[in-house]
């Protein structure tokens, strides 16, 4: 019977086992697999979801899962990462990385991972106490072949005996025991050693050598050393409830543990307490593996002999220990063992365990029943097969806790002692703070039915003994407020020309100078005159429509903030505004580039300085300049009004124009970094002060290009290129020189962009076209038809048809009135 645990615990253990099994083809490899190189990121969420569905029916302990992962070498950071992913997955959060697997690829993934899904027996086996002995790759129980010859070792066929003679005589013999059990010593004859211990065989060989060829052995002048050379192999059979029963070939120095490890240990139904070593058809030794697991005793790890049989019987009695014990799992019991002994085998209680009693679920012939076993009876309770023992947690409650918080020197948790009162608790907390509110405090108290009640008290009265003291009870929470907790935060604010404008705490007797000082002082552009204070009105007449809602006060102050002199004291929630000095100006720059005598940066001299003035300061034009093509680039200042206009343009265009390209164009135009202003410097320099003589602004860039005697034709013409300027020629002349319009040209939208930024297009009157005159440096643009449109809409077709019919009517009427 297994204790039901959370689905998350099941899934985590399953993932640990699945990861350990990755790449394994045999159960023995699975047991030896470690997780030192595992990467949890390689598990997809789809795989975890699949595993989750498979593990709905499994009962797994969280502590066991962590121990299995640690035993297999899984790094702690990978364990934490896996736990986080599982928690997020079960909680249904969206923070998990999404995969792009299709249903087909998920099916393939499930098929590939089918071999990784542990069986129910494997899941149970992981919970059995002692199973890690045969799944931990660090424990292999390999026999040590480099040890000194054991005196009790029994010789047999195929063993090799090394004989070293030294002293008066020297010789070395390496003699193999033949199938009949003899060794053949040259000049000494056959000596039967099979079945003898190493000590008995050595004495027999030494006696034979002394009586035949080495007469000096008895006197000690010649010595003999007899050791075991190469050892023989033996065959041992493992039967019963082993994971891999069968016959194994081992070295003759192997022990019972070597055979158990090779066969994978007991199966899910095998016994760990009654492993039998059968020799000569009799039970030679019964091994209890718990002696090694709990005490490290190797007494049962006896040496094997040829033809030995290791028999693993079925277990007789098992119980499950779970909950707040150090090593949850399934434990096997022997006749006469009590529950306390099994609890000790599991490491005992955890620090947070409820120790007064444990809950035992028994399996009867027809149903289950629950027994509460008190701590004092653990040593007398005899577990029955199928018992499940659950150790709960202690309650998250306190038997003697008090709490005090608020305006005391040491708020926190305190012990409830016999007879403690409210005043004594305040004294334990080192008394009240200076800001404590003395008129009222409260005690939050739990009644017997766990409902909450409030008990009010006079703080000052209790401390001064003018009010009765209050005895405290378990879980009382005493709250003493601060005077600042019971009123609004008093603030003042300062805006305008100070270095750190913002909201500041109100202080008694603070003046405007104090607030300016706290805000970092005046900026260079500030004026101390006409500082405005807006004060909150608290007693206005709400019935009067002209009632003032703020009192405005204008103050003059000294800019150097002297201590002496007039001080205007602030009140809570005052808003102080420091104005900009109207006579303060920062330098504003313009740039003159191109064909002027002295190009560069110029500081604007006056608020109405014009283009003609800056050209004069720049020394006038060079003889290579083209004043008619000059342009002015002005920074497009993005302010709130611009953003509103941009949004409005977008709304208008989106609502009335289907072509979003036009809408995007307008939006970009509204927020582009600068505007190009077309000007005519030729006229401006001839007649300064005319309308086109613009007033300069900060950041303006005046561009005076070189004379350009070429005209550029771009867009949908047959041969886009540049042509030499011809005086008096129109746009049509240059388009014809470029081969005329292409088939994809929009003729009616062709336009000319002047060198100074002005644009001109063809003017139409009925069938008459008036092409613009071209100047040197102009560029002609012919746009392209939008290929994304599939055709004219119904409205466009109707409009075009109507226009054609109307025009045809006019032409026919004219023809009818003509007389040839």
Write a structural description.
Helices cover 25% and strands 23% of the residues. It is built from 20 helices and 37 strands. The longest helix has 24 residues, at 794-817. It is flat. Mean pLDDT is 79; it is low at 1-33, 54-62 and 93-117.
List strands and helices in order, with pairings.
Elements (H helix, E strand, L loop, with lengths): L6 H15 L5 H6 L12 H10 L7 H10 L4 H16 L11 H11 L6 H8 L32 E8 L3 E6 L5 E4 L3 E4 L5 H14 L10 E7 L4 E8 L5 E6 L4 H7 L12 E5 L2 E6 L1 H7 L13 E4 L4 E7 L5 E5 L5 H7 L11 E7 L4 E7 L13 E4 L9 E6 L5 E4 L6 H7 L12 E6 L5 E6 L1 H5 L13 E4 L10 E6 L5 E4 L6 H7 L12 E6 L13 E6 L19 E4 L10 E6 L5 E4 L7 H7 L13 E5 L4 H17 L3 H12 L2 E5 L2 H6 L14 E4 L5 E6 L5 E4 L6 H7 L13 E3 L5 E3 L1 E3 L2 E3 L8 E4 L11 H24 L3
Parallel strand pairs: 6-10, 11-15, 16-20, 21-25, 26-30, 31-37
Antiparallel strand pairs: 1-2, 1-5, 3-4, 6-7, 8-9, 8-10, 11-12, 13-14, 13-15, 16-17, 18-19, 18-20, 21-22, 23-24, 23-25, 26-27, 28-29, 28-30, 31-32, 33-34, 33-37, 35-36
